[in-house]
Design goal:
Blueprint: H1 6-22, H2 28-55, H3 58-64, H4 80-100, H5 103-113, H6 121-143, H7 146-167, H8 169-172
Helix pairs in contact: 1-2, 1-6, 2-4, 2-6, 6-7
Length: 173
């Protein structure tokens, strides 16, 4: 499922190349994937937690939350939102690792993007723009800024279309 979204494979591939270039001692596959699943976890956690709070009042969640886990405050890492984020983060991490860290999918990604290098400035810029857009989407969800959220999602959709058109050269020839 994750491989169908070319934006994920694009980010993984070109951030891996960027890490290989800038930090040759690190494992580029794990570092690139780590950056990606953290960004996606932020978005999913904000989205799902916002949906949960829309459906269920926070007072209800707090009443069912055992007081033994501590008072609710900013430094309580066992607060409901923190536990919810950890579950979302873990599931997202597992999904990305299973999808992207196997030989077959890595070979498929490298074949799809072919000889394009991170030295092409467009790829380097788009990785940075994608990171910014992920943080912007998370912020928009948390603060309910729907107009900017729609613009960010449209930017991702247009990039997905651009990736498919740019790299589908084998289908057109």
């Amino acid at each position: 499922m994750l491989m169908r979204v070319k934006l994920f494979s694009y980010y993984f591939h070109f951030s891996r190349l960027k890490i290989e270039r800038d930090f040759p001692a690190d494992n580029p596959y794990k570092k690139a994937l780590c950056a990606e699943y953290w960004l996606v976890s932020y978005i999913l956690a904000a989205l799902l937690y916002g949906l949960l709070l829309y459906i269920v009042d926070y007072g209800t969640i707090a009443r069912f939350w055992p007081y033994d886990f501590g008072r609710e405050h900013g430094k309580n890492f066992i607060a409901p939102a923190a536990i919810f984020f950890l579950v979302v983060w873990y599931l997202t991490r597992r999904a990305f690792i299973v999808t992207f860290l196997n030989e077959r999918n890595i070979a498929e990604i490298e074949e799809y993007y072919g000889p394009d290098s991170i030295e092409n400035k467009e790829h380097s810029y788009l990785i940075n723009i994608d990171t910014l857009l992920c943080f912007a989407i998370t912020t928009c969800i948390v603060f309910h800024v729907w107009t900017v959220l729609v613009l960010c999602v449209l930017a991702f959709i247009s990039q997905e279309i651009w990736i498919r058109r740019r790299f589908s050269r084998s289908d057109s020839k």
